[in-house]
Specification:
Blueprint (H helix, E strand, L loop, with lengths): L1 H24 L11 H23 L12 E2 L3 E2 L1 H10 L9 H4 L4 E3 L9 E6 L2 E12 L2 E8 L3 E6 L10 E6 L4
Antiparallel strand pairs: 1-2, 3-8, 4-5, 4-8, 5-6, 6-7
């Protein structure tokens, strides 16, 4: 009886393993060569758009946290560049924690073309003194989230700000690099 049961078990188990092996070998993934280049680019844009929106959404969790000179954590507070580097690190995007250093990575882009997740730099002349993370770009203007010494982390439309608008220097895309 035990022999008969063992044979029956073997006869049932072996085909099951072949079925599993055959399923895994025929998977069609993102890197499948049957995808056209245009399809891959469209998927890449969709993934990056989702990533950008996730970064903007995540950054809003920190609204109201106090400003702290050289601050790099929600427990102690943030300065502007500590905040942007902290948020990006949550998405495995490593950037320096100093705004002047952040200002030279990625690709410079026109302000009118910024997308969520891009960085906008502020200052006088070409001297960078502040950085903010773009959360959205609409007909109403460019909205950013940043750590300010007066109000801590806040989101605002810098296109309509009498204080920030004249200080805008340039923007950088650090996601698509």
């Amino acid at each position: 009886m035990i022999r008969k049961t063992s044979k029956l078990l073997i006869l049932l188990v072996i085909p099951f393993f072949f079925l599993l092996a055959s399923c895994s070998s025929t998977s069609r993934g993102y890197n499948d060569s049957s995808w056209s280049s245009a399809s891959r680019k469209k998927l890449d844009r969709g993934v990056k758009k989702e990533l950008r929106n996730d970064i903007a959404k995540h950054s809003r969790r920190y609204k109201g946290i106090k400003y702290q000179y050289a601050g790099k954590s929600p427990k102690t507070g943030f300065d502007c560049s500590g905040f942007t580097s902290y948020v990006m690190k949550k998405f495995n995007i490593e950037i320096p924690s100093v705004s002047r250093s952040q200002a030279i990575i990625g690709k410079e882009i026109p302000i009118k073309r910024v997308k969520p997740g891009d960085l906008i730099f502020f200052g006088k002349g070409r001297k960078v003194t502040h950085v903010a993370l773009v959360t959205k770009n609409t007909r109403d203007g460019v909205f950013v989230i940043h750590s300010t010494s007066s109000k801590g982390i806040m989101e605002q439309n810098v296109s309509k700000s009498n204080y920030w608008r004249p200080k805008i220097l340039f923007a950088r895309d650090i996601i698509t690099r």
